[in-house]
Amino acid sequence: MAVAGFGAVSRVSFPFRRSLALCARRRSSSAPTSTVETLADLDSLVGDGTASSPPSPPPPKPNAGSSDGIREWEWKVLSSKELGIKASRLPKPTRIVLNGLKKKGYDAYLVGGCVRDLLMKRVPKDYDVITTADLNDVKRTFSHCDIVGKRFPICHVHVSDCIVEVSSFNTHARRQRNDLSYLPRRSDCDEHDYARWKNCLRRDFTINGLMFNPFSKIVYDYLGGMEDIRKAKVRTVKPAHLSFHEDCARILRAIRIAARLGFSFSKETAYSVKDLANSVLRLDKGRILMEMNYMLAYGSAENSLRLLWRFGILELLLPIQAAYFVSQGFQRRDKRSNMLLDIFATLDKLLAPNRPCHNSLCSTTLNHPRVIWPLDPMVGILAFHQALVRQPRDPSVIATYCLALHNGGNLPEAVDIARSITRSHDNKFPELLKSREWDDGDLICEVRNLASSVTSALSSMTDEHFVSQAMAPYPQAPYSDLVFIPLQLYLSVGRIFECVNNRQLERGYIAKKGNKINYCSLAEGGLAEIRHVFARVVFDTIFPPNSEGEVRINPV
C-alpha cells in the first residue's frame, strides 16, 4: 500500500479582501484567565482604537447618520456584463427553473448571497430564485414541485436529482411587517422597483440585498450592498440590535459570512454581535448544527473559530474548545495559531462551496444547488484533538493511527509504513511529545490507547455535565451546557474511528487508492474517502509538507 503525499487546493481569492484582524491594539497580558474577558472593548474590534468600554448602544433610529440599518442609499441599476456576471455559467438546474418561469410570462431573479458571490467571482454555496409568480403558479409551471414551509412558504422544484428553491414576491408582500411602514416611497420608482426594494429590505445584510435579472442582464442594488462589498463590510439592513433581536440566527450568519469572505463588521454590527451573543442559545439545536456546519464544512473553518472566539460565542457553542483556547493563553484578538486552528486551516485548503464535506444523510452529486452537509469529519477532528489535549502523544503514534484509519484498521501495515516517514514533525505543538523509538508491539499498544481516548473524547462532547464543566475553572465565562450533536451524528462519527478500536480488520473494507480526493464519493458519505481526508488533514498538520510539494510514504 502506498499513501501519496498530500497536496493543497487553494481557495478563490477576492480583490477586495481585507484582513480579519478587527483590532487596532493588543493587550500585553498573557495570563490564561485574562482571555475570558467580556469583550467590552469593542471599539478596538472595529478599528476605532479607543480605550473606553462603552455601554450597549440602544437600537438607533432609522436613517440615523452613519449607523447601521436602513439609510438613504442611491438606488443603482448596474450592467451584469460590466460586472463580469454571465448567466451561462449558472448551474443547469437553476437555468431550467429561471427559463421555465420566464416562458410563462413571469419575472424571475437571483437574489441574496449567490449574487454577492457571483460579483466577487466566488462559487456560490446555493442559488435563491424569486419570482413574480404565486407559489401555486410555480407549482403549475413545473411537473415536480412541492410547496414547503408554513411561516415562510417556498417551492422546491425538482430538476433531475436536484432541488431549486423558489420564493414569491407575492408571499413576501403579504407578510411584509408594518415596522417598515414609515419608509417613504420614492417618487421616481415604478411598481417593479418598489416590489424589489421592499423585498430587499427583508434581507439580513446589505451585501445579501442584491438582485440579478439574468434576462435583462441587470443587477439591482437598493441598499448599498456594492459599496459594502467594496469596503469588505458586513452590515445589517435594519439597525443591528433590532435585526438580531428579530432573528438571533443572524449573529451566526454574520460570523459565517465574515469568516468566509474575509470581511469585517461595521461598528454597530460588531457591538450587537457581542451584546446579544447569549441569545444564540435560544436557537433550536438543529439550527445551531446547521449553522456550525456552514461555518466548518465549506473552507472557512479556521476563520470561523477565530471569530467565534473573538466575539465570545465559542464558549457558548463549543465550551470544551473554548477552554483549550484559554489554556493556551489565547487573547480575543490573538493572531497566533494553535494545533486546533492549524488542523482546520489544513482542512480549509481541501474544501470550498463547490467541494463541501460529506453528506451521509442524502445521496447526491456536487451539482446540487442546495445541499446541507453534516459535520462528521469536523466533529471527528474536534474529538481527536481533545484526546491529544488530555494526553499528548508521540508524533509516530499519531502517524500510525492515521495510516491505520486509512487502511481500515490494519495496524501491522500501518506500523511498517510509519517507519518510512521522512518528514519532520511540527514541534511547536504542546499536544506532541518528543519522538522516541518504539518496538512494534508497544507502538500498536499506544495507537490502540489513542483510539480509545478519541472515542472517550467524542462521548464527552455529548455529555451535558462534562460540557457544562469545561469552562468551570474560569468563573467569568458564561455558563453553557449546550450539546447540539444528535445521536445519529455521534454514531456516524464513531464509525470513522471504529476500525482502529476493533481488534480485527473490517470485513470487505477497501482502502482508498491514490491521492486525489473524489469529492462525489465524499459527498455521498464514502467511508474510505472520509477516512482518507481525515488522515490526510491530521498528517499534513503534524508533518507539514516540505516546500518541494509532494512527498510519498512508501511501504517498507
Automatic annotation (TrEMBL):
Family of the protein in this entry: Belongs to the tRNA nucleotidyltransferase/poly(A) polymerase family.
Highest classification ranks of the organism: Eukaryota, Viridiplantae, Streptophyta, Embryophyta, Tracheophyta
Superkingdom per UniProt: Eukaryota
Keyword Repressor: no
Protein name listed in UniProt: Uncharacterized protein
Gene Ontology MF terms in the entry: nucleotide binding; nucleotidyltransferase activity; RNA binding
Keyword entries, A-Z: Nucleotide-binding, RNA-binding, Transferase
Domain tRNA nucleotidyltransferase/poly(A) polymerase RNA and SrmB- binding: 262-323
Protein source organism: Zingiber officinale
A Pfam family it matches: PolyA_pol_RNAbd
Gene Ontology BP term (one): tRNA 3'-terminal CCA addition
UniProt entry tagged with the keyword Nucleotide-binding: yes
Region feature (Disordered): 44-68
Domain Poly A polymerase head: 108-235
